[in-house]
Design a protein that fits this description.
With 508 residues, this protein is mainly α. It contains 19 helices and eight strands. The strands form four sheets. The protein has a two-stranded antiparallel sheet with strand order 1-2. Strand 1 and strand 2 form a beta hairpin. Helix 7 runs parallel beside helix 19. It starts with a helix and ends in a 5-residue tail after the last helix.
Length: 508
């Protein structure tokens, strides 16, 4: 038998991250001991809701309800049993129902189609997956914010174009990465609201002559809203949902990969200031070279991010240039694998953050050796003494050039030499002939910690802003956690109501 090409790719790419998929399965919203909320589960729920609603609203003879309820209960119980048959489609579920209750059970089929039923369970399962992704994103960003708070005062170099640029707080740097991941959390919530709509009652693509109560059906299945347009329900929205989720998974992977690559760049240095705690899954010794400690965890996280992006390309390519309603991008297993890859990436990124070891002294050494504070000279000359920035920039650049040619760092650069360079640089201009910075001011301008503390703009790394931004980040985390709990609670409460109303139809 030929394997579905996308599924084959998914199997290959996810072979190294099976433990993540297993962990995700253990987080099933129904609980570890309950049957999974798979296609079979949702087909059962839709049948339950149809029976309750139609028997109460005159579309089905109430006298038939107990027999149909008993047949449906048998099918669900058999599927929930160990190794039980759990069909994934309407046309494979219905024969089991007929075997259990006879042809009369098909009276449930009033105004329904595999089109709207499949669109509905795809949406229900995808929203569950989105909450799993939101869970892991929340866990990882919580670790990141905790680390940012712990290192709010740790001064390290930051880089642009791969080159040491300016001193910064490590905590501020991590909050920057957290901001990107928080936007991913917002994207999850926005996409969830679009996915969390019931297609039931739209039948194939233009509704039905049966006066179905679509709103009540939606409420029983935990959907707060309807897919309004019947054509959209199965032909358009069910195709673009996976594409939108793919965009979120891609963004999560890109944000994770950006951070990992930054750490990898530092890790590759002869004397890095940021490493992983050795041992476990973090690092491993080269099989040939005893001195090497390879960053296995970083490599695996980067690989997970690549896998997530590769799988996320699937729905995009599958949806491209096909007529509406085609099944290409709708496969539940493929789309679940895509989200699981995003979860795996975030899970490993969490492990990376927990394993980081920071050498603050080495970070300060790099800051000073690379003259990363030199811009502050130009800034102070302009801010405090009115010297045009470009002229001040020239002065600072000449100081750095001279220092590197003579093996000097900021801590031991002679003040008299700075005075001479300044005088030569501004000769023939309207600038003051003598360096307007005192020796103390000159030294302070080259002190990374002083520079960070003196930042004045909102959103900077200065202590008061760090305190404010950490508080804001924690408030966002609390809000996201509340949203996840509320969404799960809404669905669970709806299903509980459905079960209670369905149970009232069964024979004791």
């Amino acid at each position: 038998m030929t394997c579905h090409p996308t599924r084959r790719i998914a199997a290959i790419l996810l072979a190294g991250t099976l433990f993540h998929a297993q962990a995700a399965a253990a987080q099933d919203p129904a609980g570890p001991d309950a049957p999974p909320r798979d296609e079979f589960f949702w087909l059962g729920q839709m049948n339950k809701a149809s029976l309750v609603i139609n028997s109460q609203e005159g579309l089905l003879d109430p006298a038939l309800a107990p027999d149909i309820a008993d047949a449906l209960t048998q099918v669900i119980a058999a599927g929930d049993a160990p190794d039980g048959e759990r069909p994934r489609t309407v046309i494979s579920f219905e024969p089991l129902l007929i075997d259990a209750g006879g042809p009369q059970v098909t009276l449930l089929h009033a105004g329904r189609s595999s089109q709207d039923m499949h669109a509905t369970f795809r949406a229900a399962m995808l929203r569950d997956k989105m909450l799993e992704l939101a869970d892991q994103l929340h866990a990882t960003t919580t670790t990141m914010v905790d680390l940012a708070e712990r290192h709010a005062g740790t001064i390290v170099p930051n880089y642009t174009n791969g080159v040491a640029a300016q001193p910064n707080s490590l905590g501020h740097y991590l909050l920057g990465h957290d901001a990107g991941l928080d936007r991913d959390a917002q994207r999850i919530r926005e996409a969830y609201a679009r996915i969390d709509r019931s297609a039931m009652g739209t039948t194939v693509l233009n509704g039905t002559g049966w006066p179905l109560n679509r709103q009540r059906m939606a409420e029983y299945l935990g959907f707060p809203a309807l897919v309004e347009n019947a054509y959209d329900a199965s032909q358009i929205s069910s195709m673009d949902h996976p594409v939108e989720v793919a965009g979120i998974v891609t963004s999560v992977a890109l944000h994770s990969g950006n951070l990992v690559e930054d750490i990898m760049t530092q890790y590759a240095q002869t004397r890095p200031w940021m490493l992983l705690e050795e041992g476990g899954e973090n690092t491993y010794v080269s099989s040939a070279m005893p001195q090497k400690r390879n960053p296995g965890l970083l490599n695996n996280t980067r690989s997970d991010a690549s896998q997530a992006i590769a799988l996320a390309m699937g729905p995009v390519l599958q949806t491209h240039n096909i007529t509406p309603g085609m099944p290409d991008p709708k496969d539940v297993a493929d789309n679940a694998a895509m989200v699981d890859a995003g979860i795996a990436t975030l899970s490993r990124l969490d492990a990376v953050l927990q394993a980081l070891v920071i050498d603050q002294d080495r970070a300060l050494e790099e800051l000073n050796s690379d003259w990363t504070a030199s811009q502050e000279i130009a800034d102070r000359l302009m801010r405090d003494h009115g010297l045009p920035f470009r002229e001040g920039h020239h002065v600072a650049s000449e100081i750095v050039t001279h220092a590197r040619q003579n093996g000097m760092g900021p801590l031991d650069f002679p003040y008299a030499e700075a005075q001479r360079i300044y005088a030569d640089a501004v000769a023939g201009t309207d600038a003051p002939a003598d360096l307007p910075l005192t020796q103390e001011q000159f030294r302070q301008a080259l002190d990374p910690a002083a520079i960070v503390a003196a930042r004045a703009t909102s959103g900077g790394p200065q202590p008061q802003e760090m305190t404010r931004m950490i508080g804001t980040a924690r408030a966002r985390l609390d809000d996201h956690a509340g949203w996840i709990a509320a969404r799960r609670g809404h669905v669970d409460a709806a299903l509980d109501r459905l079960d209670a109303d369905f149970d009232s139809l069964t024979r004791d």
